[in-house]
Amino acid sequence: MICYVPAEHAQAEPRAALTPATAQALVKLGFTVQAAPGLGRASHYADADYEKAGVVFNADHAAALAAADLVLRVRKPPVEDIARMKRGALHLSFLDPFNESALLAAFAAAGVSAVSLEMIPRTTLAQKMDALSSQASLAGYAAVIEAAQRLRMALPMMMTPAGTIMPARVFIIGAGVAGLQAIATAKRLGARVEAFDTRPVVEEQVKSLGAKFVKIDLGETGQTAGGYAKALTPEQIAKQQAGMAKICAQSDIVITTAKVFGRPAPRVVTKAMLDGMKPGSVVVDLAVESGGNVESSRPGEDVITANGVTIIGHPCIEGTVAYHATQVLAANFAAWLTHFWDEKQKALRLDPPDEILKGCLLTHGGAIVHPQFAPKS
Ligand code: NAD
Question: Do the beta carbons of residue 322 and residue 15 sit within 8 Å?
């Protein structure tokens, strides 16, 4: 089977879907691995190391796509690439399926089986393939580092002969995978950390990291069977905003990670809350690409408010640590492929009763097969 890893189409994407280590694992399984030259340049993996691992570079993108049985990518492909692929080939990447119906239709029309990394079930068995978690964890870390660099303050408490420097106050909104890593990072840097999440089960996890859990009574919130937050009512959102305004006003750094799977991100920080914040404070909106948690945030831009609050809207903040983001993402791909590899046939076996496959296979055999995305008849 030929596995091809093209260069990322999105210009600002520094991550890659393959490292020399995972290339070696795929070659060992039995894949012929081809890649675009310079694949790992932006994430600091050298061509020579890929070659040592058995990768053959192919600069002819169209020919490589047409020959591949399997294509691995970080981001969704340009639609014209899909029609160039072989019927029956498999494509693995993030796909943003809730917003990309035309792309899914193109995969189905081309007879390409598309797997969406976002839809891999968050189960124990699939943990090694969980690309949302591997990337969110680094995003949480990077958000704190980025904010600390912009803040004209030190984070830890320092007792000096010239006086005591008080620890910076960090408020994390949303304590899922990214939020918990942000809490841990801010604590390691010595900040005083508070956090809030609508899922009450998170309180213990927040406390175990040494942060304070902010209590806001929103009534019934709960979570889905998959562990995701449920969307709040407009009244609950208003209560949440009122409850958080004072904490934002006291905080030096606010990091928002609040997401509701498959829906636009909730607006949890309003302009009025930003107006109440201290000059020089920094807000990082990790939900900026899915609609934004913060009223004035813009993808790819820093916004500075009239009262001097910097709002960072980095659309892929884990890209600032692209070496490690690539390391773990490529490992997620390799774990998925190993799970579905049939050693006897020396080929991938897409077994529809498999729970992981049921969750993440969106198109197959010329149709959209995932019930959440199949056209309603
Ligand atoms: P996510 O990115 O969808 O959301 C991030 C956080 O935002 C969540 O904790 C959510 O509760 C919170 N949130 C939503 N609306 C909010 C609001 N209005 N205000 C404040 N917070 C809000 O979630 P995620 O980080 O990808 O993880 C979701 C859950 O999936 C995890 O908490 C975990 O239970 C589960 N999970 C399981 C596994 C596994 O078992 N292998 C792996 C990863 C995650």
Answer: yes
